Prior knowledge:
The structure holds 2 protein chains of 2 kinds.
Chain A: H1 22-43, H2 60-67, H3 69-102, H4 109-116, H5 118-121, H6 124-138, H7 144-169, H8 173-180, H9 185-214, H10 217-222, H11 230-240, H12 244-276
Helix pairs in contact in A: 2-12, 3-7, 3-9, 3-11, 7-9, 8-9, 9-12
Chain B: H1 4-24, E1 27-29, E2 35-39, H2 42-45, E3 49-51, E4 57-59, H3 62-93, H4 97-112, H5 115-126, H6 133-138, H7 152-176, H8 181-188, H9 193-204, H10 206-221, H11 225-230, H12 238-247, H13 252-286
Antiparallel strand pairs in B: 1-2, 3-4
Helix pairs in contact in B: 3-7, 3-10, 4-7, 5-7, 7-10, 8-9, 10-13, 12-13
Amino acid sequence: MQRLSSPRQGKKALPVGHYRGLGAWTIVFFVFLYLPIVVLIFYSFNANRMVMNWGGFGFDWYLKAFQNDDIQKAVWNSLIVATVATVVATAIATAGALVLARGGNFRGKTVSLGLITLPLMVPEIVTAVAVLIFFAAIGLNWGLGNVIIAHTTFCIPFAFMPIRARLEGMDTSLEQAARDLYASPWEAFRFVTVPLLMPGIVAGAMLSFVISMDDFIITLMVGGAGSTTLPVYIYSMIRRGLTPEINAVSTMLLFVSIAIVTAYWVLSRKTQQDSVH
Amino acid sequence: MGLAPSYFVIGIFMLVPMIIMGVFSFLEPNPYGGVKPVGSLAAYVKLFFEYDLEDNLVFNPGYLNIILRSFQLSFGATLLCLIFGFPVAYYITLQPEHRRNFYIYLITIPFWTNLLIRTFAWIIILGRGGVIEAPLLAAGIIEDSLRMMYTDGAIAIGLTYSYLPLMVLPIYASLEKLDLRLLEAASDLYANRFEIMTKVVIPLCKPGIIAGCILVFIPCLGAFIAPNLLGGGKKLMLGSLVQFQFASARNWPFGAALSMLLLSAVVVTLIFYARAAKRREVMEGSA
């Protein structure tokens, strides 16, 4: 048997645990992961009517997208839904996380955790069907309100996770110190716990917002005629014919998501560093 | 008390709806959507049988084939994700810490961006005269379209692409805890590279591999976007079949029954996972 550390002829010996081609494989992986995104953005500058026939560089389709009233309406709907769902889901998730992280070991803790993360386990299409049937069964027909309710529900676990992670990384000594210094329980919570928890809350809210903005299948099934959100509108555009207008709208949505996720990333890195010190 | 709002919202708008969905699957369909309050097993019978012209029940493999294809494509996509993702997760583990974080950031970015538009991009890549075909046609390497769209292959690529980050992240999470000195030890004990990988690295990150496979498999099974856009509505999968029952066919009980089927597949998968995790705990406890 050949020893690993023995130098091979002509090639530099790899350290233990390293394998040839791993780096190249990783490059292929990232090309695969980013190729569609690059293609999408690139073709949004296509001046031609047909997305696949390159007709020169231009911003025509961005202008067209900006002037499209339906797109504007869909953007507003998306923003309203995402904002309301984020605020409500984050508040609910914060309350839940505080109990689960600080309430000690109470009966039903596992069940509670299971219930909160339920929307993550169930396939989206099943959630969509269940909620659609539910609204029909109880005769609830609030238009955009129905969509907001559905979004709030599936946003809760996404808001919950970073808040809980933050809470678990925080020790209770500062809160105890505040109590020793005659802060009331409310003051200790308001002036010590909440500020410390804030990065987690903001991170949770960001994830909720992105998840809500991007949701397609649940909105498609639950939303009625007047409650078209941007992804649902993009889907109807794809069904009608492939023009670079789809790419232009998609590129803008893409950058909103990337901006928020990058902000989230920076924030959570900062949180990690804070908790180290 | 702080849990009450979570219980309320998820209970009322998720748990109760799933129970109602179960009830609906045992009712008769209303031709214009919705249900009639009459108990019936018709939705489940429809999975296997249809009525012929003389009103006899005959076996109909159509829906079973769609279900079977959903499982096959989901298995295939999960396997592709594993083959494609594992070496990458491993490679990232070997990098210095600041670079590892950046790689993870790069992997999470596509995951948080809209799946619909990322799948739409694949139409431009795979489609007739698209990014792959156009240069080949221009160079005269191919004369006709390769017809890559609307195939199972296109759906498999779409699914793999959609859920790849969900494979890499859990594997990376378990590899990150791997003590690299163990590899040195294995090497000192005359293990070759292949043995180090199969007998040390893979067994130690098995929980991550299993978690990744489940995280990819479950959404694949219920996928709607990839089969709809890349399969062109001809190559149906469970998810698109369910949506079809509500959008066009207006057979709610059948759609509910299909959703129940999907849900049971998920529950079985999760039970399998929980048992595997428990077994591991017991084994580690005794070791």
